[in-house]
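Justification of resources, computational component.

The compute hours requested in this renewal are based largely on the per-chain cost of generating structure records like the one below. Each record pairs the submitted sequence with a full structure-token output. That output is archived, and it is also reused by downstream analysis tasks.
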Amino acid sequence: MESVTPIKRNKTLQSFSREHHHGLLLCWKIKTGFKKNISADRIKKYTDWFWKEHLQPHFEAEEKYLFPLLGSQHEQIIKAVADHLRLEQLFSDQKDIEKSLTAIAGELETHIRFEERILFNEIERTAGEADLARAMEAHNTAEFCDDWEDQFWLTGNSL
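The structure output for this chain reads:
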């Protein structure tokens, strides 16, 4: 198995990267829930909460503080914003919940990998330290709290 060397992230972007880690855990939780035959409705309750409490504010912070560092016409920013819009649609879909959750797990993971491996590297390369510092300062992050009572990804089908 090929080992992956972690990216040495600029300190100013580390809080965004930590939030990405929690997003990747969301993807894992969705996949694990389906492997354990958890109902899509149960998983959806958690993903709705996660979207509102964590992911939507994260997207807003990226779009407000980080993306302007490259400009709205930069091809990677255009892609990132399009990804955000697509993910927002998937989270709000109420028609085919299982299909949407499966798409969220795949597309969110792909999006996070893109931001971590490509977009953030471009931001670090292009933006000045002062701009990065201002973005970090403006991005107030609270300690991540995942106090969701129904930990279906650990407990299985107990509810």
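Helices lie at 14-35, 40-66, 75-92, 97-126, 129-138, 152-155. The chain has one domain: 11-140.
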